[in-house]
Design a protein that fits this description.
- The protein contains 10 helices and 9 strands.
- By secondary structure, the chain is of the alpha/beta class.
- The chain has a single domain, classed as 2-Layer Sandwich (Heat Shock Protein 90), CATH 3.30.565.
- A 9-stranded mixed β-sheet has the order 2-1-3-4-5-6-7-9-8, with helices on both faces.
- The protein is globular, with a radius of gyration of 18 Å.
Length: about 240
């Protein structure tokens, strides 16, 4: 049986060969027919070009963590969806919301109104995951105009601090004729998900932004102690 192909872009074979073999993939330099692409510090233009057609169904930034070869990747391949695993620094720099929604709209026809709702909800979810999750910056700083300069300084500082900048953002998009599901996962400290259905508090990660998300999505699920958020959108 032919092993699924993992394409490499701007990456030496030695950088990914061990993890590819461990997970049962054959390496190739050609994107054609590859299910997964491993890329070094992909730019926005790189991502849109590499993921313009299907396959590939997944893009993983190097260095490739073993955690990327988990259930989210498996679901993307099984359902022919879209999976991305990026460092926080890269996700922030490329405007991952716009990239994700652009690729999804190529593969899944949607109205302008539906795309606007999806993009707004995804942007809020990714902002929470990157800033409050992986960069570990309290939402009160963004919400209070008096602290906004400090908020911006902290974001810029932590985006170049390896402890925070290399933490992973994972997104998974899968769809059927009846629904589009988008999952956003971060590697932050998480939060108490029992407060998710209570009125939002200024200091809480699960706050006013989640009220917006719930108003735009048909269903929202929180898991993994607040590190995973799944949004479902009706046609």
């Amino acid at each position: 049986m032919t092993r699924p192909l993992l394409a490499i872009a701007g990456v030496g074979r030695s950088d990914v060969e061990e993890i590819a073999v461990r997970n049962g993939y054959a390496l190739t330099d050609n994107l054609e027919n590859a299910f997964i692409v491993a890329a070094a510090s992909p730019s926005r233009e790189d991502m849109l070009r590499m993921m313009a057609t299907e396959p590939p169904y997944a893009l993983i930034e190097t260095p490739v963590p073993q955690s990327a070869f988990g259930q989210r990747l498996s679901r993307a391949l099984e359902m022919r969806g879209l999976y991305m695993s990026l460092s926080t620094a890269t996700a922030f720099q490329v405007d991952l919301t716009s990239v994700l929604c652009s690729i999804c709209s190529r593969r899944l026809p949607m109205s302008e109104e539906r795309r606007y709702d999806i993009e707004t909800a995804v942007d809020e979810a990714l902002s929470n995951a990157m800033v409050h999750g992986n960069l570990d910056i309290a939402s009160v700083l963004r919400n209070d105009p008096a602290d906004f300069d400090l908020y911006c300084d902290l974001v810029n500082e932590r985006l170049v601090t390896p402890l925070y900048a290399t933490r992973r953002i994972e997104v998974l998009a899968t769809w059927t004729p009846d629904s589009l599901d988008i999952e956003v996962h971060d590697e932050g400290r998480g939060y108490d998900i029992s407060n998710f259905n209570t009125p939002p508090q200024l200091e809480a990660k699960c706050g006013r932004g989640f009220t917006l998300i719930r108003s735009l999505a048909s269903n929202v699920t929180i898991a993994e102690h607040g590190r995973s958020l799944t949004m479902s959108f009706a046609p």
